[in-house]
Design a protein that fits this description.
By secondary structure, this protein is an alpha/beta fold. It contains five helices and nine strands. It is 23% helix and 24% strand.
Length: 191
């Protein structure tokens, strides 16, 4: 494109493509050992249910997490969790109930989230908003996403979730999801 910046764009555009690939183990250390997170104010626009390429807020949240020695960030509005930096968040309450945010414009629905819901079996699910404080006092927590699939959350802001280890509900959800994608669940020794 020649000339000054113009939002109208050129009459003719020569398409180009950029892509990269990185090898990685599908069910690896994060699934087995879990991850840690910091809390971060959610600064995204109010229609978070639209999948866009506007990822500045998520990138900044990941940078803040790394600087703090954590892996990811749990984003919130005034203490109410929206989602993780690039995943949906689930908690298990003290009475054993699985909770995740109800669908709304506050979060991206998540295809892994939908599949997890379909695979829950006898696990009771409640869809509703929940707070950072409720997350910190949960028995267990995990994130769901296409990239990390089901990742146990061990701590939030250096405060352990439950006993600071992946819990039974998380492991049950992992086993169901890994079975769905065709993994040999019996060969995963830590499940």
């Amino acid at each position: 494109m020649h000339g000054p910046r113009d939002f109208y764009g050129p009459e003719r555009l020569t398409p180009s493509v950029f892509l990269f690939a990185t090898p990685r183990q599908l069910i690896g250390g994060v699934a087995r050992d879990g991850l840690t997170a910091i809390s971060c104010e959610d600064t995204r626009w109010q229609r978070r249910d639209y999948k866009t390429t506007q990822l500045v807020s998520q990138s900044l949240a990941y940078r803040a997490a790394r600087r703090a020695g954590a892996v990811t960030a749990i984003m919130h509005e005034d203490g109410i969790v929206t989602e993780a930096a690039s995943a949906n968040l689930w908690i298990v309450t003290s009475d054993g109930k699985l909770v995740t945010r109800n669908l709304s414009s506050a979060l991206l629905p998540g295809i892994t989230r939908a599949r997890v819901q379909a695979l829950l079996g006898d696990i009771e699910l409640e869809e509703r908003p929940f707070s950072l404080d409720e997350t910190r006092t949960a028995q267990e927590a995990f994130t769901s996403s296409t990239g990390a699939m089901i990742a146990p959350l061990l701590a939030l802001d250096d405060h352990p979730i439950g006993d600071g280890r992946p819990g039974q509900v998380t492991r049950k959800v992992q086993a169901a999801y890994y079975g769905f994608i065709g993994a040999d669940v019996e060969a995963i020794a830590w499940l």
